């Protein structure tokens, strides 16, 4: 069923049936709940805090001892779907990389896939910074990531340094 068919079906429902449908979706789907709550109470600061907690949980899970990059990246993706400001989106992306670097510094080198994920998110964040001229807002944090990766292997420091230089040293 496509959007056209959904709209047609929704248009014939009574107001009460629409409310029931939306409340049911709210109760059953976490993302719908967050979208509706943000729509009716757009507190971006609290929303960013919630998603930073999700990213942190992906790197430092309460249960088990293994990080879950997919969960962290899904948090970024879900956050973007809520349509917060671009600045908050970049903030969360930079935070993802900061958490990965912190984990490495605490536990030692991980693997190439781990660093590729961090590099990809860092690249996307800095590309958005450059495109939207947010250089001053994020320069300190972006540079701090480069500094902290100095002794990390797998070519990670060089890749992060190159990405930083493309954005800040043009």
What can you tell me about this protein's structure?
The chain is elongated. α4 (44-59) runs antiparallel to α5 (69-81). The chain has helices spanning 3-12, 15-28, 30-40, 44-59, 69-81, 86-107, 112-132, 135-148, 156-168. The protein is mainly alpha-helical and 170 residues long.
Q: State mean pLDDT (0 to 100 scale).
A: 93
Structural class: mainly alpha
Helix content: over 70%
Radius of gyration over C-alpha positions, nearest whole angstrom:
19 Å
β-strand amount: under 5%
Helix/strand order, N-terminal first: HHHHHHHHH
Number of strands: 0
Number of helices: 9
Low-confidence stretches: none
Largest sheet: none
Shape annotation: elongated
- Euclidean distance between termini CA atoms: 48 Å
Q: TL;DR?
A:
The chain is mostly helical and 170 residues long. It is built from 9 helices and no strands.
Features of the shown structure:
9 helices; 170 residues; 2 domains; mainly alpha; 79% helix; single chain
Blueprint of the fold:
Blueprint: H1 3-12, H2 15-28, H3 30-40, H4 44-59, H5 69-81, H6 86-107, H7 112-132, H8 135-148, H9 156-168
